[in-house]
Amino acid sequence: MVINPIAKIQNDFPSKFGIPRQSGRIPELTGKIIFEKEFRYEDAFRGLEQFSHLWLIWEFSENKKDDWNATVRPPRLGGNKRIGVFATRSPFRPNSLGLSCVKLEAIEKDEKYGIVLTVSGADLMNNTPIYDIKPYIPYADCIEQAQGGFAEEEKDYKAEVEIPEKLLNIIPENKKEALKKVLEDDPRPSYKKDIEKAYGFPFSDYEIKFIAKENKIIVTDIIEK
User: Fold this and answer.
1) Between the N and C ends of the chain, which has fewer C-beta atoms within 10 Å?
2) pTM of model > 0.85
């Protein structure tokens, strides 16, 4: 079966580093879903306004490989312990498909792109291909007694973040909180937390530079591109 993208997302992450590890962790992050021409029929979106959240089925488009491994090393387990690929959300899978739950913030009609969806809480890179969109249905999709396995171990972890005021003021007001939360989520691989090292990643129209050791992140520069 051949499947083709129906849309792509546009957001503030042109590279993989810095993207939240799970959807919904940073609701301040927003993005727009732009549909391919053949899927811009308004009828296709009829009734969507009744739902608050959506499932996105998408492609790990930057992680294509000709083969796959039965086990992977989840970053949140320190990058040393191997776990079966089907027990993880690793991007390195037999089929490079991702699944994310996002909040539907707005449905708007754009003169150029037709219907555009604004969503928040996505964990996708800019221009990620999206293959399908389905409504999130609480009574069916929320299982209160579900077990989260090893993923529960660090779900509440947050890094301590320090951003000098003069640097933070470079960022537009509507993106400041999102940037803080991205850094609190700690984009570093878990197995490098005890190493003092300089990092950088693009965010929106800016390059964010920081140093980190253990659970503290200090922003050293913010450069407008």
Assistant:
1) N
2) yes
The per-type count for the chain, helices as H runs and strands as E runs, is 3, 12
Distance CA(150)–CA(166), nearest Å, equals 39
* Cα first-last separation, the chain: 41
What string of DSSP letters covers 42-58?
GGGGTTGGG-SEEEEEE
Report the alpha-carbon distance of residue 120 to residue 100 in Å, rounded. 11
**Cα 7 to Cα 21, 31, 58, 113, distances in angstroms:** 22, 12, 9, 11
Residue 120 and residue 103: Cα distance in Å, rounded? 5
How far from chain centre, in Å, is Cα 197?
Answer: 24
Question: How many whole angstroms separate alpha carbon 15 and alpha carbon 174?
Answer: 21
Phi, psi of 30 (to 5 degrees): -120, 160
Contact at 8 Å (CB) between 207 and 191?
Answer: no
Per-residue pLDDT of the chain (225 residues; tens, 9 = 90+): 889 999 999 999 999 999 998 999 999 999 999 999 999 999 999 999 999 999 999 999 887 777 888 998 877 666 678 889 999 888 888 999 999 999 999 999 999 999 999 999 999 999 999 999 999 999 999 998 999 888 887 778 899 999 999 999 999 999 999 999 999 999 887 666 667 889 999 999 999 999 988 889 999 999 998
Asked if 103 and 33 touch (Cβ cutoff 8 Å), the reply is: no
**Cβ atoms of 82 and 72 closer than 8 Å:** yes
Report DSSP state, residue 94. Answer: S
> Any idea how long the chain is?
225
